[in-house]
Amino acid sequence: MDIGIIGAGAMGRTLAAKLTGLGHRVSIANSRWPESLADVAAETGAAAVPVVDAVKVADIVILAIPTKAVAELPRGLFADAPDGLIVIDIGNYHPELRDGRIEAIERGVLDSEWVERQIGRPVIKAFNSILATSLAEKGATKGVRGRIALPVSGGALEDRAVVMSMVDRLGFDPVDVGSLANSFRQQPGTPAYCRDLDAAALSTALAAADRSRVANYRALREAEIKRMIAAQAR
Ligand SMILES: NC(=O)c1ccc[n+]([C@@H]2O[C@H](COP(=O)([O-])OP(=O)(O)OC[C@H]3O[C@@H](n4cnc5c(N)ncnc54)[C@H](OP(=O)(O)O)[C@@H]3O)[C@@H](O)[C@H]2O)c1
To answer: In this predicted model, what pLDDT tens digit does every residue of 37-83 receive, in sequence order?
Structure first.
């Protein structure tokens, strides 16, 4: 497949390396000129391109950028993309640490629902609830005991099946969370979030999430990250 990755940070470059390793043709873009991605291209085997080119010929586009940056993408970026294009959103909204307040999300719109509205087409939420280090290092062969599982929500059933197959080929058990309305179950700070759980434990954790607590989960996660940053600085 042709896969375009927008965002070449910890997650974008990890996904690029793993996906080229599976034999996909991968393009990768950041907010600057492709020349700034020469090292990433050399490291991952992906082609460094401008953002618009990451979408042009792709079967799948992966948004691997801060949530606030989605609103800064070129206007009409997806307007001419084919209907069959699958867009994966791996993002997480971090208002205090990075994104600033996004009022619609503060009022209860889910992170990836907001992304859908910004880009004007459906997204599938995946890879948001695993740290880049775990994604890079902890994939395992199907059937291995304790294989980490990843939730996938949103999009049409057949598109979600494509993304779930990608999750599997990257070394993780996919767990179908259903429509994007259920994606609150995999947002920051929920019981399922970044805990490297296997499929059975992940399913239990996803079921335990309470939509009315989404803001609270997020705040607790941001506080946890702040404590980790402070500890690292000491
Ligand atoms: N890090 C993790 O472990 C992890 C795990 C799961 C999910 N996530 C989520 O995944 C997303 C990416 O995280 P990350 O840690 O990989 O971020 P990161 O290391 O900070 O990298 C962000 C990337 O996005 C690019 N970018 C920013 N604005 C852009 C724009 N308008 N157009 C094109 N590219 C743009 C940046 O390019 P420039 O350098 O040119 O600005 C950079 O390459 C975030 O939403 C994050 O919450 C992260």
So the answer is: 999 999 999 999 999 999 998 999 999 999 999 999 999 999 999 88
Phi, psi of 10 (to 5 degrees): -55, -45
**Residue where the block lists tokens 């259903």:** 178
Q: Which ligand 1 atom sits nearest the alpha carbon of residue 98?
A: 47
The rounded Å distance from CA 119 to ligand 1 centre is 17
Distance of CA 64 from the midpoint of ligand 1 (Å): 5
Q: Which amino acid is at 232?
A: Q
Compute the distance from residue 13 Cα to the ligand 1 centre, in Å. Answer: 10
Q: Residues with Cβ < 8 Å from 210, sequence gap 6 or more? A: none
Helix H segments across the chain?
10-21, 38-44, 51-56, 67-70, 103-106, 111-119, 132-137, 157-169, 199-208, 214-233
Amino acid at position 76, single letter: G
Closest to 89 (Cα-Cα) out of 195, 25, 183, 220:
183
pTM greater than the 0.90 cutoff: yes
Q: What SS3 state is found at 81?
A: coil
Nearest atom within ligand 1 for CA of residue 8: 43
Instruction: Determine the Cα–Cα distance for residues 68 and 57; give it in Å rounded to an integer.
Output: 25
